[in-house]
Amino acid sequence: xxxxxxxxxxxxxxxxxxxxxxxxxxxxxxxxxxxxxxxxxxxxxxxxxxxxxxxxxxxxxxxxxxxxxxxxxxxxxxxxxxxxxxxxxxxxxxxxxxxxxxxxxxxxxxxxxxxxxxxxxxxxxxxx
Amino acid sequence: xxxxxxxxxxxxxxxxxxxxxxxxxxxxxxxxxxxxxxxxxxxxxxxxxxxxxxxxxxxxxxxxxxxxxxxxxxxxxxxxxxxxxxxxxxxxxxxxxxxxxxxxxxxxxxxxxxxxxxxxxxxxxxxxxxxx
Lengths: 128, 132
Fold this sequence. Notes:
Chain A: This is Ragulator complex protein lamtor2. By secondary structure, chain A is of the alpha+beta class.
């Protein structure tokens, strides 16, 4: 059982060192919880992040290099997007997606480390 | 384009674990390429470059400005794609490669890519004018 209060608190802890918002969303793009930003902005971001994630999962790598995992699916581990005014990091967290938005000064490694660190939380690993 | 192929080849040879470097248009049509000897022909499939175009376009809706680069990490390999509109620079490498090295290699190619992109953009504009 997911604990919404606890999730929001954990997500809020990620919002340091240039990270502006952290979102936890379902694969279909619906928002589970978020910290930072307004709800309207978070919903738009969740929809776009989910869309880009699944586009990459389906067609993001060249044919012939697919590695099929135990579930019989190809696995996209993470996705980092750099824009003119910020960076976006999307990663799989159990059956959900974890999305971080940071400013353009934030280092790539820090962003990736935060995602890996957040995935280590029990609620993300074992959501049921 | 032969000069660009040579340049891509030199970057491929001096960067460890890189399987391929491609310059494509937004539909995935290849303009220049450098392939590692062990790379399969499937790498030249256009679909995955087109995915970058779609993702890049979607990013514009986030209010974070235009998309400059996307790094995607899969189970077996990682892909770094740079937006040099109307062209896309793609570096495909194994997971052993450091992403920072790939990004630096891509940035080394920024100036030649800018020159080629501007020429392609002008040619496209000229062709459009001729049509009307």
